[in-house]
Amino acid sequence: MKLSLTSSVIRVSRNKLLRLIIPWACVSIFGLLMLLSSGFLYLSTKLPSRESYSNIRLENPLRIFTRDGKLLAEFGSRRSDPIKYEDIPPLVVQALIASEDKRFYEHGGVDSLGLLRSVVGIITGRDWGGGSTLTMQVTKNFFFQGESAYSRKFKEILLALKMERELTKEEILELYFNRTFFGISAYGIKAAARQYYDKEVQDLVLEEVATLIGLLPRPNAYNPLQSRELAKGERSRVLIRMRDQSYITEDEFELAMNSPQSAHRYGRQPELSAPYLAELVRQDMMNRFGELALTDSYEVITTIDSTMQIAANAALEQGLESYDQRHGYRGPEAHFESQPELWEVELDDITTIAGQIPAVVTAVTEQNVEVLMKGGEILKLNWEGLRWAKRFITPSSWGSTPRNAAEILRTGDQVRVMKNIEGNWQLGQIPAVNGALVSMDPDNGALLALTGGYDFSHSSFNRATQARRQPGSNIKPFLYSAALDNGYTAASLINDAPLPRSDYRPSNFEGSFMGPIRLKYALAQSKNLVSLRLYDTLGADVVLPYFSKFGFKQEEFPRNDLTIAIGSHVMYPLEVVTGYSVFANGGYKVEPWYIQRITNFNDGVVFEAHPATVCEDCEVKALDSANAALEAQAALASSSQTLTNQTTVTSTNNETANTKASAAENPLLLTEIDTDTNSLPLAPRVLDARTAYLMNSILRSVITDGSGRPISRALNRQDLGGKTGTTNDNNDLWFSGFNKEIVTTVYVGYDEPEGLGRSEQAATVALPIWLKYMEKVLQNRPESTMPQPDGIVTVRINPETGLRANPDDPEAIFEVFKEETVPPYPAEGTMFKGQELDKVVDIF
Question: Which helix (H) or strand (E) is 371 found in, with range?
Fold first, then answer.
């Protein structure tokens, strides 16, 4: 009875408890469902849209190439080389699926079994995986890094479900392979293949694929560059899963398992050096795209020609070294006081500059020196590599040639060693002087080569675009061109004589005067007094606006400074070479440019250059077309007029003739006419074709008869013109020269203005650099001269009077003129340099 009563009590209590618990349980479950539903509805609105993940902008460094496809530079540390799904080998896809998500093609973004396995693993303390599918990993890589684990996992699930509805499996895999981190700085399988194996993805073998896929769970820890043992273990795991899922055979498995680990750190290195140009491109890209320029997979194709750039680098480096060594050795860079066993460590901290390697002297004998080079190599320098090192005193003075090695160096001296032109090792020295070389295509302004200094790592100051220096006589051709357009000819006599100007007493470089000389000869011999007289006679109101035709900024020139005529006003080398391009291309104005095309993986081509381009045929065709139209109009008008309207017809014909003449005199009117020459805008004509031709002739005489004679002897070409430029105290030395296809300017000087030495001038420093460069780039190129335009005639003149030569004149030379400016024959009985001088020609 008692037992029965107890059972009844228990049943009643349990029923009461159930009646109490069940409602609360239902409320709790309903509340939880409501909470989850609310969270789902709330978070669903926060999930990224399809566009945000299907159009993800993959990241990659900015890459800069030459026009012929050579890599110049990379900017940005994050590497994520994009690859399309169809370019990914099936073996790579199989390895990923076997390792990370074997039911990838079966689930809809979330693998329930995987999640359950993960939960059980957490409860039991076993690592059975995280339960994330490949789709969920993609969402984590894109959007949810840095969030709490629970919040992130819930969002991953929701977005994975959404992504699977909106993308194909192949699109998801493409995102995964392009976005996932593979260690170091590699994002994406393509970047990883290059970084670890220096291969394209398509060229990876099985063991390499397994290694890359194996590091995905912990990219830094399983990295083969960090721990080969851990990497090998993860590689084995991937291979086992691939074998178990029948992606590979047993033989393939065994071969891959027993293969050595071959991963190394590779990086795509620049294929040639053009850091000054690359920095210009980087700055330009930052201005265009901001920080995205360094991450958004941009590739820039420049106008730089790799062969020309290599030649420019070599010419400037060797030219500066040659000048520097002529003026003596400034001594070792430092002296190591530490123990010899520490010297190699100290050398590791010193940068190699332009091929000049740090070294320390370990032994000195009578005429030899032994050095320890950076990297540990022992090198012996013989006397031929040392004897140049006479003691530097000033740029104009130096000591005598040393008699033995002990006069130059002692043990412990930190020096530089380098290979000379013949390939032999010698004592080196970083030049104190610096310079620039800029080479341009005169037909459209494309930069073909640019180097702004001896070594970018030593000095990033770009002297081609940032150094404003006095051009000296490099300015004279522009002044002489103005003279030709204002009544002068190549045979006009100008007085090379002192020009007193109160406290200003200008002189020629050599200090002598020649009296009346021809304008052409004056430029070939670079006579300062002739240039000053020309400027004085023409005046600033004529010359300065004329200079603006060549791209020089008129407003920057002082109005009342006679020394403008001899190059006192500072200019950039890039400005100077652009000005000379007008002479080279026959009279057209082009603008310098260096970016040909900009592309990126996400958007394709985002910029294509369309520079104003010289088209002489277009000008001729346009003029012919305009004349033909006017003639047709005149003929139509003539046929429709009656005899009584003869006066009107005559008037119309006169107007037609005047219009033709106007079109011929002002070709700028023709630049708007449509042409069929690849739709590029036409470069405007700024210089009469005949004036340009005469200047070509005059500047060729600098090469054949003036300061450019070394070029004529070395190259033996008839298509080159140019001009030297040397400033006061030999501070700045220039040479600018061209043919019809290439125009190049070289500048040399100290960054802090200082004389380069009494014995130096443009012909001994800048010209040899120009010559070495042009000798290389003109190799195997046929001569390219400016065609003679209509209205030019060649006549014989007397070289002293500049007048037409009599048939029996034994001193006569040929000269070219505009047909309306041909000089007369001398009046009978006139004398030159005598009392009747005024009957021959006016002398200014």
Answer: strand 369-373
Sheet of 721-726, strands arranged across: 447-451, 434-440, 743-749, 732-738, 721-726
Verify whether residue 100 is a known catalytic residue. yes
Q: Which amino acid belongs to residue 603? A: D
- How much is the pTM? 0.79
Q: Which amino acid is at 159?
A: L
Sign of the Cα torsion 837, 838, 840, 843 reads positive
460 carries an active-site annotation: no
What is the amino acid identity at position 432? A
- The Cα–Cα gap between 311 and 747 comes to 16
CA 550, CA 482: separation in Å to the nearest integer? 11
Let me know: does 83 contact 190? Beta carbons within 8 Å.
yes
Catalytic residue among 59, 74, 100, 234: 100
Burial 644-660 (b: 16+ CB within 10 A, else e): eeeeebeebeeebeebe
Which pairs count as long-range contacts for 599-603, CB under 8 Å and 24+ apart, including other chains? 599/298, 599/299, 599/301, 600/60, 600/296, 600/297, 600/298, 600/299, 601/58, 601/60, 601/82, 601/297, 602/55, 602/57, 602/58, 602/296, 602/297
Q: Kindly write down the DSSP assignment for every residue of 285-296, as one continuous string.
A: HHHHHGGGGGTB
For residues 281 and 607, the answer to whether their CB atoms sit within 8 Å is: no
- Burial (CB count <10 Å: 0-12, 13-18, 19+), residue 471: buried
pLDDT digits (tens, 9 = 90+) for 572-630: 999 999 999 999 999 999 999 999 999 987 789 999 999 999 987 776 565 555 556 55
Q: What residues does 745 pair with on adjacent strands?
A: 438, 736
- Per residue in 292-314, pLDDT tens? 999 888 999 999 999 999 999 99
107 in Cβ contact with 309 (< 8 Å): no
Alpha-carbon distance 655 to 659, whole Å? 6
DSSP label at 203?
G
Which of the residues 80, 99, 306, 473 is marked catalytic? 473
